[in-house]
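Tutorial, part two.
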Amino acid sequence: MGSSKISNLLVISLFLALSMMTTGVRGMYHVYVYNMLGENENLWVHCSSKDDDLGIHLVPYQSDFHWKFNVNIFRTTLFSCDLAKKTVSGHFVIFNAKRDDGNCKDDQCIWHVKKDGIYFYNAFAMRDELKFRWP
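Running the prediction step on this input gives:
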């Protein structure tokens, strides 16, 4: 191999190594989906990404379903969830690495599912923000 090919290979290797280090250190997220529908109202949650299906979970009132993961090198990690209550259900993007980077305090993304919609908890402002209405 010529010296320019070796240089290019070294640069690419260094870039990938740094990307993986950054992903491992900065890229671990914890997502929480809380049932805040009201007493005796259960929430069904089924979340998945392109690579992972987290299964179907029954979440009682004031409980949560949560998971943790690393984002990929290109920061294209996306988790969507089918959420259902009594007679209404919907499909929502709960985590999008490009959207949520910097919005989740201490890399914890918290969602509150309420009667009128799905709220993202803005930990910096300490308030719920309506992001999705039920269909």
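Residues 32 and 69 are 12 Å apart (CA to CA). In part three we will examine how such features are distributed along the chain.
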